[in-house]
Amino acid sequence: MTNVYTTDEIARHDNATDLWIVIHGVVYDVTAFHKEHPGGEEVLLQLAGQDATECFENVGHSPEAINRREIYKIGVLTNAASTDKSETTSTEIKEPTEDEWQYQEPKTEMQSWSAHFIGAVVVIYAVIIFYWYNKL
């Protein structure tokens, strides 16, 4: 069973030692995470005890960050269903697509000219070292 919290309950968790935020009607306890937050702990401290949906969406988080927030999920906001219907609420949480579930390494294809350049440099060094050792 999911814990249900009121806005008054969430508002009491508004400091560095007890930090809750709400995103799309879902309540997260980010007390343990706020010092690790890539955007700085100040961002979370400013939103402590409040709805952080707009800020979260405006920044644009990676699929990995979106999935990671589930670790800190502790419940839902009691009146989330009565808020803006265009937003995702506690009863209709958006399921990540297949692309969002799997982390994919960035594709780093070496350009053909750089492969040739590196090959030429290696050959030149090999020739120089060969002649240098033969002179000794």
TrEMBL record:
Xref: PANTHER family: CYTOCHROME B5
Topology in the lipid bilayer: Single-pass membrane protein
UniProt-recorded name of the protein: Cytochrome b5
Pfam family, one: Cyt-b5
Gene3D superfamilies in the cross-refs: Cytochrome b5-like heme/steroid binding domain (3.10.120.10)
Keyword Transcription set for record: no
GO CC terms of this entry: endoplasmic reticulum membrane
Record-linked SUPFAM superfamilies: Cytochrome b5-like heme/steroid binding domain (SSF55856)
Main localization of the protein described in the UniProt heading: endoplasmic reticulum
Transmembrane segments: 113-133
Similarity field: Belongs to the cytochrome b5 family.
Keyword tags: Electron transport, Endoplasmic reticulum, Heme, Iron, Membrane, Metal-binding, Microsome, Transmembrane, Transmembrane helix, Transport
Entry keyword Zinc: no
Compartment annotation: Endoplasmic reticulum membrane; Microsome membrane
Native species: Cardiocondyla obscurior
MF GO annotations: heme binding; metal ion binding
Domain Cytochrome b5 heme-binding: 2-78
